[in-house]
């Protein structure tokens, strides 16, 4: 666990102005070129800097299991179709900070979701909770919050919150978001450098109201129903130039694994209409503790000691964008398993709508095309088509493949998104996502449809105008 003295040492190291005498005048310019202007010095007050936003989200989601006689690894599955439809409201309040050397504030999330349509034979997607008979609950709600303190440009927050880092990231792919409880330290003291450190002890699942409701996904060890015991991480990102940035993180999830992450992004603008972007992501994962040998999903009893990496390149010409990506897993077991450290902790290029293409030994490639319809008379409409193919999947999956032959998987995605540009409904957006997933017998064949409507309302911004 991070202790208070560790935070004190970290803050002291990051804020020279608190521990050293003021520099002489001739050194101020040099220091100002290294340090950011203090965020706390610009604070206008806890209410004056507040934000209050309401996201109204409607989600229809179905999965059609094309080979319903079995699911992953040949086990029998009676249900051949899943379908859920729900309405959600996410109220997000973020206060400013009180003025002074140390600023204080609060953040809060209020969430409510209710069922529009599903049945006992169609549940399982995770939009709403289900009772012990497998029936979807009519509604559910969550209320979480956090307190925060800021010195200079360093903020320490404690409570339940939404997190986004490469090694610990909450998920928001259903009706209401996942949240995590713990400490988060964020520092922006040095120009172009952002540092994060976290200590988290529980996750609240997207489709549940109670704490510690996120299971660990592996089935062999659930700690009496809970997944996450403790996750500690530290890392950061640095903007070397306007075009080049890099991120480096380390995490330790008790009883599950230790991870190292490296990410590099490079953008090269050729001219006003053309640009090239490159992105590299790498994870090294080693399992540990009582769950060192997890399950067949991660290597048939073999411990995880894997490397997973992806390289993605894209070329943009006017309203057209072409993308190619390659991803590989080496070593033992699954490449970058996740879930107990947040359902969004997967920054690999071929982690797409249905599959992550991160099986043991897997090699996968992706081809993608994006089109912005602005030049064709429909501003706000964007279209996407993507194909991902994975092969060379480890022998343990091939052995359980009842259909014989090599083990492989492939996925095709189509997506259309429209955002209203003007008028009272400005920023209302509609999104259609369609996926076709096929494998050589080790997992379900699935056709998946997601229809998502969202309206973000800046409540305080409306009244401040």
Automatic annotation (TrEMBL):
Keywords: Signal, Transport. GO terms for molecular function: porin activity. Pfam families: OprD. The keyword Signal applies. Residues 1-21 form the signal peptide. The keyword Signal applies. GO terms for cellular component: membrane. Belongs to the outer membrane porin (Opr) (TC 1.B.25) family. This is Porin. It comes from Entomomonas moraniae.
């Amino acid at each position: 666990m991070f202790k208070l003295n560790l935070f004190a040492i970290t803050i002291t190291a990051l804020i020279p102005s608190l521990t050293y005498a003021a520099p002489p005048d001739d050194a101020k310019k040099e220091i100002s070129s290294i340090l950011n202007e203090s965020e706390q010095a610009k604070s206008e007050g806890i209410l004056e800097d507040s934000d209050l936003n309401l996201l109204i989200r409607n989600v229809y989601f179905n999965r059609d299991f094309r080979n319903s006689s079995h699911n992953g690894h040949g086990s029998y599955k009676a249900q051949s179709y899943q379908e859920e439809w729900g309405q959600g409201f996410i109220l997000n309040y973020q206060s400013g900070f009180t003025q002074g050397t140390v600023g204080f504030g609060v953040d809060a999330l209020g969430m409510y979701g209710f069922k529009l349509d599903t049945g006992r034979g169609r549940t399982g997607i995770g939009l709403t909770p289900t009772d012990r008979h497998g029936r979807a609950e009519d509604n559910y709600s969550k209320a979480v919050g956090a307190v925060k303190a800021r010195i200079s440009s360093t903020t320490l927050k404690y409570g339940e919150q939404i997190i986004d880092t490469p090694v610990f990231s909450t998920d928001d792919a259903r009706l209401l978001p996942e949240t995590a409880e713990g400490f988060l330290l964020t520092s922006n003291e040095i120009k172009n450098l952002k540092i994060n450190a976290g200590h988290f002890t529980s996750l609240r699942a997207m489709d549940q109201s109670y704490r510690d409701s996120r299971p660990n996904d592996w089935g062999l060890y659930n700690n009496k129903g809970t997944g996450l015991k403790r996750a500690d991480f530290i890392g950061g990102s640095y903007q070397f130039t306007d075009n080049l940035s890099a991120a480096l993180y380390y995490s330790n999830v008790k009883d599950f694994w230790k991870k190292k992450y490296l990410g590099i992004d490079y953008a090269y603008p050729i001219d006003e209409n053309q640009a090239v972007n490159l992105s590299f992501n790498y994870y090294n994962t080693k399992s540990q503790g009582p769950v060192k040998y997890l399950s067949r999903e991660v290597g048939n009893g073999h411990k995880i000691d894997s490397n997973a990496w992806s390289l993605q390149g894209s070329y943009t010409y006017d309203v057209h964008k072409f993308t190619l990506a390659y991803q590989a897993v080496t070593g033992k077991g699954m490449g970058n398993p996740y879930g107990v450290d947040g359902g969004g902790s997967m920054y690999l290029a071929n982690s797409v709508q249905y599959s992550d293409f991160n099986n043991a030994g897997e090699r996968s490639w992706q081809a993608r095309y994006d089109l912005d319809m602005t030049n064709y008379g429909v501003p706000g409409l964007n279209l996407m088509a993507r194909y991902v193919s994975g092969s060379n999947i480890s022998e343990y999956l091939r052995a359980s493949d009842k259909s014989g032959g090599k083990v492989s998987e492939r996925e095709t995605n189509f997506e259309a998104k429209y955002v209203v540009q003007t008028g009272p409904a400005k920023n209302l957006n509609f999104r259609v996502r369609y996926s076709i997933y096929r494998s050589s017998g080790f997992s379900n064949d699935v056709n998946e449809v997601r229809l998502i409507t969202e309206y973000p309302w800046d409540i305080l911004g409306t009244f401040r105008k």
